[in-house]
Fold these 4 entries.
Entry 1:
Amino acid sequence: MARVIGTEAVEDGWRRGRTVLEVLPGDIVTEMARETAVRLGVRLADGPVERPVPVRTDGVTAMRRSLYRRSARWVAPARTVQPRARRFSRLAIIGAGGVGSNIAHLAANADIGDEIVLVDIVRGVAAATALDLNHAAGMTGTGARCLGGEDPGLISGADVVVVTAGRARMPGMDRAELIDVNRRTVHAAAEAIRTQAPRAVVIVVTNPLDEMTLEMLRATGFPRERVLGMAGTLDSSRFRAALAMAAGVAPADVDAIALGSHGDEMAPILSLARIKGHPLSKFLTDDRIEACVRDAVTGGGQILALRRSGSATVAPAHATVEVLDHIRGARAGPVPVSVMLAGEYGIDGVVLGVPAHVGPTGLVEVEILQLTKAERAALVSAAEAVRARLSR
């Protein structure tokens, strides 16, 4: 009898581990089912699908194999062990303001480390946040122990140090205007990291992010692999959220990435963006797509205009934890981060947001995407803008 194959049938097959769903002659497949199949990676195959012929073994061969397995020479094949995400022994956060405290909260809830340390120059702020998080552990059950204080020595032996300290933007203020004031903050943090946690991977969140990542790299003297900037992760999230809102779909249905500089020179990659596996043009007009790009570029400024004091805190914290998850092996694949480029995309000697594979020791490899000429030109333009701002 003819069947109606809907979303439920596709999702049920996906949950059972099936990658191919047979569609027999006369079956009716709904449009939502086809979209769900594309999103979940389930192939709808026109049936009847030919079944593989079972391998038949004669009795003599079967007996010989059975006796061989009983002999002393037979060794059972090693079981494949699924890699498990590691926990940090100590995660340190320099700066216990809105972003830093939110990172600590998310990290503690996810139980990603044995110790989570907060350091801030404002007396009592870091210690109070740490104590608050420890009190919450009675409800969350997390095993992470939180510590806080003003002493930079607290970061000693940290696996990863996240730097959020620095002055935040004010309404009408450009990120570049923070270079001089936040350069001093980053240099102070770099000195503490260099002396107290010389083997740590550093994640910079302080604005202007690409420039401050470069300052951290120079001040610590660390190799480029161990100094990363959280920027493209947040920019990509804002771009996906804007596309999902405009298309009326769930953010999980959107696959998109933003590269370049964390600011006006951001480069959302339209050629590779997909909604439910389809190019953006299937769901959005050119004007709507351009509006989504503007929304991603100005996302931080929109929050700043509403708050009037301070910038975004929640989304940057989530973006930072996403980078931390990639470092500890809880997520696979490339993640957009700011790194010192060494010839990738034809750019050298400047920090810029690019897709990269990261691990316990930081940067593993920059992934080279197939970009259009315009998109490559946007990356080069962003790199030159970062150079120009630092040379002022």
Note: The chain has a mean pLDDT of 90.
Entry 2:
Amino acid sequence: MAKITASVYTSHVPAIGAALDLGKTAEPYWQPVFQGYEFSKQWIKDNPPDIVFLVYNDHATAFSLDMIPTFAIGCAASYAPADEGWGPRPVPVVQGHPELAAHIAQSVILQDFDLTIVNKMDVDHGLTVPLSLMFGQPPADDFRWPCPVIPFAVNVVQYPVPSGQRCFNLGKAIRRAINSFDKDLNVQIWGTGGMSHQLQGPRAGLINKAFDNAFLDRLISDPTGLAAMPHIDYVREAGSEGIELVMWLIARGAMDDVADDLETLATNSIATHAHSTRARHRFYHVPASNTAVGHLILENT
């Protein structure tokens, strides 16, 4: 059976991608940011996934304001890096996993979550920057990412956006879907976006370190309580773009320690009390292009 072994959480700041692409990672401004991912790059080499299920938000490249799905799953065989106005990032085409993606789509829809199935789209920095941070820049002589990726786009751009509770519950449904796939696969689920930041208006440049670190604390130790936090708290405390953090709750809801499906537990022959999740790495830095950068790795044990 397929199994989610870990979840990864990270900001996806576009300027981080530019710093990588332009060779600026060792500059004094950027070096502390990338230093925070050195552990992660070694960790993922030691714990390589067969597939990454990557939760992110599109930034008006695949979806315009003419049509914005709340939840969209990529079922294509590949996804080209998007041109966001200054040319595509010089990173590999993302290879998908249509078989698992289609299985997840069917399972999650039959659990009463409405998904948009996408068979063709380009992917922007929201997806490619996390890949670069975790895997590093692929060498020119092997220009490919180490594993397939299933893109899962969430609308956090145009209100109404999904609640944290909805996202958390969706993560549980995704976990059940992956656990029911009949091939032995090591799957990691990544939640991206955030942390606190606001890009416009009188509060442009807002960063709230206290909120961000409290969010990380609760994501580890109280995800069920955190899922109940209303939209207004995100916007008030973390800025207009801080709402992206609801995407982290999809990844968190997919972890073993919050499983509440007895049938799934029985299938895996694991008693409820045996489920636990541990934090392997935590990193927080301010600023990175007027944005707070947060990063966390959790493992199922």
Note: Residues 164-179 form the longest helix (16 residues).
Entry 3:
Amino acid sequence: MAQLWGGRFSKSTDEKVYEFNASIRFDKRLLTQDIAGSRAHVKMLAATGILTEQEKNQILGGLDSIEADTNNGTLQITDAYEDVHSFVEANLIERIGDAGKKLHTGRSRNDQVALDMKLYTRDRIDETKELIGNLLNTLLDLMKQHTDTYMPGFTHLQKAQPLTLAHHLGAYFEMFLRDDGRLTDIRKRMNLCPLGSGALAGTTYPLDREMTAQLLGFDGATRNSMDSVSDRDYLIEYLSALATIMMHLSRFCEELILWNSNEYQFIEMDDAYSTGSSIMPQKKNPDIAELVRGKTGRVYGALMSMLTTMKGLPLAYNKDMQEDKEMAFDAMDTACGCLDLFTGMLKTVTFNKDRMKESAMMGFTNATDAADYLVNKGIPFRDAHSIIGRLVLYCIGQGKPIDALSIEELKEICPAFDEDLYDAISLETCVSKRLTKGAPGRKAMQEAIAYYEAYLGQDAIQY
């Protein structure tokens, strides 16, 4: 059992206690970040005269060899080590001797693990932003293709007013746009380096913390050593952002699942993103969409776990905080995997334009426009609302949409109706008249698409 703290103890740790306390099983994925932090720390120690240039070069060479050998499989990270930090340090001492024992000068595992987790989270935020960017580009491509694809808009899952598929997809673009902004904000806010904070009270060594921060790509060093080692706000924020992303994906999946049903028939899922039934040969199930919807709860669970872990901890570091990793890693893997799969699935969906348009026409989504038509003929809106209600009731009895009625039928309900009604309540007219900012009309949609293009045309990641 490779431990860094045995001098104080007169007897060995119970084996079950050791296994319960150890984190190597899951924190080994922090190896890249741990070595990166050690490299920066060693360079700073040499620059401040705490280490010699020879010692620096020995340690850097040893760290390089450990990383290379681990990556190519000749060096295994095993349960013989308590954590990733002891794995690196033990192997470094074994390879370069006494110089390796100086690696830990001026730092604690507390600020070391705080750094590793920050670096890892920052890397995953960058990965998530890239995946969000891919999804936004896919949505924008679909919006451009479907500015004239008419469909019903819904409230309460009831057909409400006509709009276009581009407009409907644009609502999700806005959601994921905000998700992208949240990730940018989190990354900027968390980008201060905790290394050099020691266990909780800094160190007596003349460290140059700003140099370390600069080497690791941070905006600067953290300002309070106690907060530095006990802060997990950035992780809670990231998990919250992932939970929101998953909520948006889940809502989208729910609609795709509905649209894919025999009752809607708005879309056809690609075979590559569907599965069959072991007993019913006719089935084609939207399992990927359902799994993304289902995995949302898993990410929510990680967020609640982290909030619960942190809610009662006094300052500064407590071992409870080791629980910041397993579920967080799972949530990161889950959310990134879902974003990637969902984007691939969405790219391959076939939209049934004719069926969508037919559904909009048969759902009386132009009823509001028919009421507006009567208002423009001088009838008060409340009276017009009542007239159109009776008109819809008549249409239901006849099994026809409003624009399939004859002018005689229309005039029997209200003499103000005339031939120009048919054009006034066509889906094309209903949608094209809606030109206010954010509406589905062509001009408004062109403005929205131009804005989205400009947003995605910026550098892929800006902080």
Note: The beta strands are 150-155, 158-164, 267-268, 350-351.
Entry 4:
Amino acid sequence: MRVRIGGTALFWGAKRVQDIAFSAALLPVLCAVGLALLLLNPVLNTGALLYMQRRVGQHGRIFTMFKFRTMRPGSAEARFADAEAHRITPLGQFLRRYRLDELPQILNVLRGEMSLIGPRPEQPEFVAQFDLSLPGYHHRHAVRPGLSGLSQVVQGYTSDANGTRRKLALDLRYINRCGFRMEAYVFWRTLVTVATGHGAL
């Protein structure tokens, strides 16, 4: 059974225009933060500037998601975020608190792989697992994944089956009720989340 996707053609057109315009406006911020990290990383966060990871996007397509690196080098094995918390550097903690580590994803938005708002893209290994254990999980791939999303601003990070089930319900609610009102709500909650550091590891 297919999931019902809310929103009109006008909404989806306006959403893509907003994605491009807002991401383009953030490019100078991305460059400024990237330059600052190039200077700080050799002392406070030794290693590569960017962290790149395969994620599952719209219609199950695999893409490479970009982030500013916040952890010391470790295993490439897929793990929940809180299982890797011990590897987060003090500078990485700051980046995560204010979601600055997510800034490079505006490049994914400009490339059409992501949207500013939508279900967060998950690692292929977890998607394969959740497809088997959570009925309807694949429906969250009906729309572009987002830099922020309803489940992120309402629940934050999760590392267990019950939390993942609640996040799936929120993601499907977002998809079903997509529209200008829902988009404005998630955008506002995202600003509050960034300001307060809610849910940051």
Note: The radius of gyration is 17 Å.
